[in-house]
């Protein structure tokens, strides 16, 4: 019988293997990306972010 790796398993592995600095860097990157995607609504930037969201598979409407 084979077992499949779940998201919960991967989070546990990341907790064990990543250093505090690496986790902080990931958190900072995600926070900056979230801020950019949610709050940067200038028309030109919004259009490029809209296309980016579709490119990475995020449903935005």
Overall structural domain count: 1
**What's the tally of helices?**
3
Number of strands: 0
Structural class of the secondary structure composition? mainly alpha
Strand content: under 5%
| Distance between the first and last residues' Cα | 41 Å
The string of secondary-structure elements, in order, is HHH
In short:
Keywords: Membrane, Transmembrane, Transmembrane helix. The protein has helices at residues 7-17, 20-39, 43-55. By secondary structure, it is mainly α.
Structure, described:
InterPro entries: CbtB_put. This is Cobalt transporter subunit CbtB. By secondary structure, the chain is mostly helical. The protein has one domain (7-56). Helices cover 72% and strands 0% of the residues. The protein has 3 helices and no strands. The chain has helices spanning 7-17, 20-39, 43-55. The longest helix has 20 residues, at 20-39. It is elongated and about 45 Å long. The mean pLDDT is 81.
Topology of this structure?
Blueprint (H helix, E strand, L loop, with lengths): L6 H11 L2 H20 L3 H13 L6
Structural key phrases:
61 residues; single chain; transmembrane; mainly alpha; Cobalt transporter subunit CbtB; membrane; 3 helices; CbtB_put; transmembrane helix
């Amino acid at each position: 019988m084979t077992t499949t790796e779940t998201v919960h398993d991967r989070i546990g592995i990341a907790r064990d293997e990543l250093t505090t600095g690496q986790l902080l860097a990931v958190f900072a990157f995600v926070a900056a990306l979230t801020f950019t995607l949610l709050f940067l609504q200038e028309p030109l930037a919004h259009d490029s972010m809209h296309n980016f969201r579709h490119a990475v598979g995020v449903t935005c409407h």
